[in-house]
Amino acid sequence: MNEVILYDYWRSSASYRVRIALCLLGIPYRTEPIDLVAGMHKSPEFRERNPQGLVPALQIDGVLLTQSLAIIEYLDETHKGADFLPNDAVGRQHVRALSHVIAMDIHPVCNLGVVGNVMKMAEAHGDDPTEIRLAWMRKYIAEGLNAFERLLDPANSGGFCHGDRPSMADICLIPQVFNAKRWGVDIGGLNAVNRIAERCLAMDAFARAHPDLCPR
């Protein structure tokens, strides 16, 4: 069996999602740290693996996969019993919609490259880039998670985002909750989000994927 290699940055929420999925499936993997702050993702060597210069990238089954949600869906399709997406079309749509709130709406405006440019523009206009970054992160994370909370369907929640086991939506939610806490976003009023996060983080797979346990 080919070795599974995850090209990872410990604080990347997209990488965190893939770590959770691999741990939920019990797939052993080796981490190759890609230090985004040091610019390792821009190196010619890494761009040979992923022309976008983004993490994660996952070497598995003889292929190199990119884009966290596409990787999670691949793992769901290739591992019986993963059930990261429900069997019914409406359920799949709901889980994908929740996942996209985080991965396609919150994440893109809060990633390293975008926020770095925001800070440069703030500095050019004489503003404090650190304060601008903090306000930016808090605004978009808070707005996104508040919308996520409203999109949760209590009728279809068995303790998780959809159903009685973690789905792709839960895999996306936990890294975003981590980011919310990192940036001091007030999510105390998001009762469902906090309840789901507590349940997930009590599970071994989620605990083992935590950034604090990652090679750097």
Automatic annotation (TrEMBL):
<dbReference type="InterPro" id="IPR005955">
    <property type="entry name" value="GST_Zeta"/>
</dbReference>
<keyword id="KW-0413">Isomerase</keyword>
<feature type="domain" description="GST N-terminal">
    <location>
        <begin position="2"/>
        <end position="83"/>
    </location>
</feature>
<dbReference type="GO" id="GO:0016034">
    <property type="term" value="F:maleylacetoacetate isomerase activity"/>
</dbReference>
<dbReference type="InterPro" id="IPR036249">
    <property type="entry name" value="Thioredoxin-like_sf"/>
</dbReference>
<dbReference type="InterPro" id="IPR034333">
    <property type="entry name" value="GST_Zeta_N"/>
</dbReference>
<dbReference type="GO" id="GO:0006559">
    <property type="term" value="P:L-phenylalanine catabolic process"/>
</dbReference>
<dbReference type="GO" id="GO:0004364">
    <property type="term" value="F:glutathione transferase activity"/>
</dbReference>
<dbReference type="InterPro" id="IPR036282">
    <property type="entry name" value="Glutathione-S-Trfase_C_sf"/>
</dbReference>
<dbReference type="InterPro" id="IPR034330">
    <property type="entry name" value="GST_Zeta_C"/>
</dbReference>
<dbReference type="InterPro" id="IPR004045">
    <property type="entry name" value="Glutathione_S-Trfase_N"/>
</dbReference>
<protein>
    <submittedName>
        <fullName>Maleylacetoacetate isomerase</fullName>
    </submittedName>
</protein>
<dbReference type="GO" id="GO:0005737">
    <property type="term" value="C:cytoplasm"/>
</dbReference>
<dbReference type="InterPro" id="IPR010987">
    <property type="entry name" value="Glutathione-S-Trfase_C-like"/>
</dbReference>
<dbReference type="InterPro" id="IPR040079">
    <property type="entry name" value="Glutathione_S-Trfase"/>
</dbReference>
<dbReference type="Pfam" id="PF13410">
    <property type="entry name" value="GST_C_2"/>
</dbReference>
<comment type="similarity">
    <text>Belongs to the GST superfamily. Zeta family.</text>
</comment>
<dbReference type="GO" id="GO:0006749">
    <property type="term" value="P:glutathione metabolic process"/>
</dbReference>
<dbReference type="Pfam" id="PF13409">
    <property type="entry name" value="GST_N_2"/>
</dbReference>
<feature type="domain" description="GST C-terminal">
    <location>
        <begin position="88"/>
        <end position="216"/>
    </location>
</feature>
